[in-house]
């Protein structure tokens, strides 16, 4: 039987990190902009969840929180996200590398001072633990824009083993299609099943001719919009998953 490798996104597929990401983004933003209150208002947290589907990398939470605090409507952020992010970076003369560093350091400090509450804010989706435990260790790969050490913390707190070399995170500075190409090259006779909640990422893979053999799955429960769900449903390359289930992936 041909080997199957499971290439799984993390945030929005395995872990519901929206609450922790929003709270961390707010705290870093309040360090950059002292006019912001320390406590994140409930309405902004609620709006952050609405905007979360268009966010690609954690540090962007800092900018989303600032824009929401300034009164930018959530629907404008959803419709015009890259432009709004670039505008605030330019306006405030901010460097992406610095924001990534500040975001990572804030999380590291939270983990160091109160690991239990940080884990609590990063719950796995229902069924994920059982789903992962059914996949042999050598066949589990995580492909994420999260920093790798945070993935390891969350999985180990949930008693899930993962080989560190099989986590492809932010630290590797690679786009997901490139990571999938590397996996394919290293495992030429394996079937790769890629599960992702962001439709634009799946479309990038579809537009990469060398990845035509990879099986694509859209995690309906993750960070995506109703328009994304509709588009994924009508794309012949993409299979929509309603819940994390090994049976639905392999049948």
Automatic annotation (TrEMBL):
One of the GO BP terms on file: DNA repair
InterPro entries: HAD-like_hydrolase_sf, HAD-like_sf, HAD_sf
Superkingdom field: Bacteria
Single GO molecular function: phosphoglycolate phosphatase activity
GO cellular component, one term: cytosol
Protein name: Phosphoglycolate phosphatase
């Amino acid at each position: 039987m041909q080997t199957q490798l499971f290439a799984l996104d993390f945030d929005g597929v395995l872990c519901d990190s929206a609450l922790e990401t929003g709270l961390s983004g707010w705290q870093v933003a309040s360090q950059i902009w002292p006019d912001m209150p320390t406590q994140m208002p409930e309405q902004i947290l609620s709006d952050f969840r609405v905007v979360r589907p268009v966010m690609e990398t954690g540090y962007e939470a800092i900018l989303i929180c600032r824009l929401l605090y300034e009164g930018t409507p959530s629907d404008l952020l959803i419709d015009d996200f890259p432009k709004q992010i670039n505008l605030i970076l330019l306006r405030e003369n901010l460097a992406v590398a610095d924001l990534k560093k500040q975001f990572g350091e804030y999380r590291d400090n939270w983990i160091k001072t109160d690991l239990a509450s940080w884990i609590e804010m990063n719950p796995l989706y229902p069924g994920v633990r059982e789903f992962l435990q059914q996949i042999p260790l050598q066949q589990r790969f995580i492909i994420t824009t999260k920093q790798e050490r945070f993935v390891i913390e969350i999985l180990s707190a949930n008693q899930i083993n993962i080989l560190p070399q099989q986590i492809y995170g932010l630290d590797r500075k690679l786009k997901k299609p490139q990571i999938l190409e590397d996996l394919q090259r290293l495992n030429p006779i394996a079937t790769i099943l890629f599960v992702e909640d962001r439709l634009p990422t799946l479309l990038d893979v579809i537009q990469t001719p060398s990845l035509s053999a990879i099986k694509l799955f859209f995690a309906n429960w993750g960070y995506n919009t109703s328009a994304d769900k509709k588009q994924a449903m009508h794309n012949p390359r993409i299979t929509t998953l309603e819940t994390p289930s090994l049976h639905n992936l392999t049948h």
